[in-house]
Every structure is written in structure tokens, then in C-alpha cells.
Automatic annotation (TrEMBL):
Gene this protein is translated from: LOC110806039
Signal peptide as annotated in the record: none
PANTHER family named in the record: ALCOHOL DEHYDROGENASE, ALCOHOL DEHYDROGENASE-LIKE 6
Domain Alcohol dehydrogenase-like C-terminal: 211-342
Record carries keyword Oxidoreductase: yes
GO molecular function: alcohol dehydrogenase (NAD+) activity; S-(hydroxymethyl)glutathione dehydrogenase [NAD(P)+] activity; zinc ion binding
Alcohol dehydrogenase-like N-terminal domain span: 41-130
Cofactor annotation: Zn(2+)
Protein name per its UniProtKB record: Alcohol dehydrogenase-like 6
Organism: Spinacia oleracea (Spinach)
InterPro entries for this protein: ADH-like_C (IPR013149), ADH-like_N (IPR013154), ADH_Zn_CS (IPR002328), GroES-like_sf (IPR011032), NAD(P)-bd_dom_sf (IPR036291)
Length: 384
């Protein structure tokens, strides 16, 4: 008697799974059954283990500027590779990974440069489709459901380009590491890589969410002597001190312009200012809060409205600099594993940024908490 074994090639199969779908700007997410295509060449399909809500998810969900719906948001996630597409050699089934909202192809001009992390092939995708063929992998009853940042982690499974994921050690908790795929990495990199904060310097941070407090942590670890946090929500202040903030300002408590308050506290202006709000008016305020000669402003936020920055040319003529920062300037596939190692060595306390753990079914609660200023990061746990 003979027997035979049939091997199922999961990488060629369409699967169905649950996803939290946004049907319109600001509309509550709806748990839907979606079809997810198999990974195409150089793509991987991931079983999402944990994902967290980032402020940019909320901004894009609320935005009326370029609405793309129906859509699956989420980009800050950890998971396990379920299947791999043709040509993928870097990953195999069972690998633990973090998703990356901006990738690294390793071969383009920017990837080969030490001056940039703006990959020309796998850079930030804003149109709701995949990099390779400008199509979606999600659908409902044959109709497309669009991606967010080519990740879409508010789903039990997702498909990403292999250049938009990074392999991590399997002995590190994925519910903590997901924060390194965006928020915490963005703040630390802005402090260390983009600004290169020096010892005994003065720093002012506008916006005390996860990104702003990651900047504060980075400044503290670099030895900054004076770290000022600015936020209109005083409920954040007690938590902020844990990350190294030495002085806290609520602009609503002052009648004079806040940049004048800061200049008085810093003897003429801060060495470094960070805009972590997502407001171009705050970018101008941050520039005004810097000192002449060498004051550096770094902007990290994603604005919902009025994307143009307005500033008098004299601010720049006097020696100030304005720089942008995407995921902290890190080359994501190359650099994020170093942050994972730092977490393992207990050099960066990722756990302190997690204020809530929620189940996938309660994802709308995460939106409520963030909009209400009641959380730093809500980690959303997928069903086993």
C-alpha cells in the first residue's frame, strides 16, 4: 500500500480574514470579512500579532483633503510571516517581523547614500496601493479595499513588500516591539540622528505624545541639561517627567506668545526645537523658539490642514535651520534592529509608552482614547 502527501502552497492562495475597515472620513471602523490576495513577487504575507494606533492613522482617517476609502489603516505592527512570494529569500515562514511604512530597497541612490533614508523605490506610499503594481491586495466581494502606507495592519493578515518589513529576534515580545516600527523609533532618531543633540544643550518639544516623549527620552540619554515640554493638555505632564522633561508649559496658561516664554527660559532660545504636533503653525512657533546662530528645528508631525509652512526669511537668515524627519532618519531595515538590541539591553524603556492593551474587537476605543488625549500608545492584540 502506498501513500502520498499533498503540500499546500499557501503563498498561492487567497485567504479570508477579519479587518477593521474605514468606509469614510471620521466614520467608525467596521469589522469586515475581507479577501486577501497571495503575496506577489518580492512580497510577504504576515499574520499580524500586535498593532498600535499612531497619530498619523487618526490624521489620515479624519482627513478630507485626499480621502481614499474604503481603507484599512494601521502601520505600526509586529507579526509572523505566513507565506512568501516569488523571489523572496530574506524571509521564510515563521519569521518574526516588524512592518515598515517606508521601505529600504538597498540599491537606489538614496539607499546607497549615508545622507538619506528616502528610498526611491519603496518610499512613503500615499495612494492606497502596493508599490509593485499599484493595485490593492484587499477586497470585499470583488471590490477593492485600499491600503494605508502599504501596510494596513488593522487586519488579522496583511501583505507587504519584503523591503517594507524587517526580521527581528523571536525571543523578544512582539507586543512591545511593534512601537519600534514607527513612533518610538521616529522620536529617538529625530533626537539622535537628525538633530544629533549634544550634552548640556537646551531642548524644547511641542507635543507630548509618544513621538514627543521619545524625543525627550533621546535628549535625556544624550545629556541635554534643559528639556522643555509644551502641550495644551496638562494631564500629560506627570507622565512626561518620567521621560526626562524638566520643565512643562501649557500655552493656555500664558497671555504672551509661547515662543517668548521659551526664549526667556532659555536665555535667548533653545538649541533644538521639535514639532511633534502635526501643525504647521507650530513649526513656525518652534523656529521662533530657537536661538540665533545655530538653533535647529526638526518637524515630525503630519498636518491635517494647511500644509504650507510660513516663516519670515529673517529667521533663517539669522542662522536657524529647519529640517524634516521621517522615521527619525533611520534606514529602517538597516537601523531598527539596533533599536531592538537596545531594548533587549534595557537601554530604551519601550514598555513605558504603552498605556493601554486592547483586543482587536475594541479598536474603535483606541481611536477614542487618542482623540481624547487619554493615551500614549494603545497596543491592539489580534486573535490567536
Amino acid at each position: 500500500m502506498s501513500s502520498s502527501t499533498t503540500t499546500i502552497n499557501r503563498s498561492s492562495q487567497v485567504i479570508t480574514c477579519k479587518a477593521a475597515v474605514a468606509w469614510g472620513p471620521g466614520k467608525e471602523l467596521v469589522m469586515e470579512e475581507v479577501e486577501l490576495s497571495p503575496p506577489q513577487p518580492m512580497e510577504i504575507r504576515i499574520k499580524v500579532v500586535c498593532t498600535s494606533l499612531c497619530r498619523s492613522d487618526v490624521t489620515a482617517w479624519q482627513s478630507q483633503l485626499t480621502p481614499i476609502f474604503p481603507r484599512i489603516f494601521g502601520h505600526e505592527a509586529s507579526g509572523i510571516v505566513e507565506s512568501v512570494g516569488q523571489g523572496v529569500t530574506e524571509f521564510q515562514e515563521g519569521d518574526h517581523v516588524l512592518t515598515l511604512f517606508t521601505g529600504e530597497c538597498m540599491t537606489c541612490r538614496h539607499c546607497l547614500s549615508t545622507q538619506s533614508n528616502m528610498c526611491q523605490v519603496l518610499g512613503l506610499e500615499r495612494r492606497g496601493v502596493m508599490h509593485s503594481d499599484q493595485k490593492t491586495r484587499f477586497s470585499i466581494k470583488g471590490e477593492p479595499v485600499y491600503h494605508y502606507c502599504a501596510v494596513s495592519s488593522f487586519s488579522e493578515f496583511t501583505v507587504v513588500h519584503s523591503g517594507c518589513a524587517v526580521k527581528v529576534r523571536s525571543d523578544v515580545p512582539l507586543d512591545k516591539l511593534c512601537l519600534l516600527s514607527c513612533g518610538v523609533a521616529a522620536g529617538l532618531g529625530a533626537a539622535w540622528k537628525v538633530a544629533d543633540i549634544s550634552k548640556q544643550s537646551t531642548v524644547v518639544i511641542f507635543g507630548l505624545g509618544t513621538v514627543g516623549l521619545s524625543v525627550a527620552l533621546g535628549a535625556k540619554l544624550r545629556g541635554a541639561s534643559h528639556i522643555i515640554g509644551v502641550d495644551t493638555n496638562s494631564d500629560k505632564f506627570e507622565k512626561a517627567r518620567l521621560f526626562g522633561i524638566t520643565d512643562l508649559i501649557n500655552p493656555t496658561d500664558h497671555e504672551e506668545p509661547i515662543h517668548q516664554v521659551i526664549k526667556r527660559k532659555t536665555n535667548g532660545g533653545a538649541d533644538y526645537a521639535f514639532e511633534c504636533v502635526g501643525d504647521t503653525g507650530t513649526v513656525t512657533t518652534a523656529l521662533l523658539s530657537c536661538c540665533d546662530g545655530w538653533g535647529l528645528t526638526v518637524t515630525l508631525g503630519v498636518p491635517k490642514v494647511e500644509p504650507e509652512v510660513k516663516a519670515h526669511y529673517g529667521l533663517l537668515l539669522s542662522g536657524r535651520t529647519l529640517k524634516g524627519s521621517l522615521i527619525g532618519g533611520w534606514k529602517p531595515k538597516s537601523d531598527i534592529p539596533k533599536l531592538v538590541d537596545m531594548y533587549i539591553r534595557k537601554e530604551i524603556p519601550i514598555d513605558q509608552f504603552i498605556t493601554h492593551d486592547l483586543q482587536f474587537a475594541d479598536i474603535n476605543k483606541a481611536f477614542e482614547l487618542m482623540i481624547g488625549g487619554k493615551c500614549l500608545r494603545c497596543v491592539i492584540h489580534m486573535p490567536n
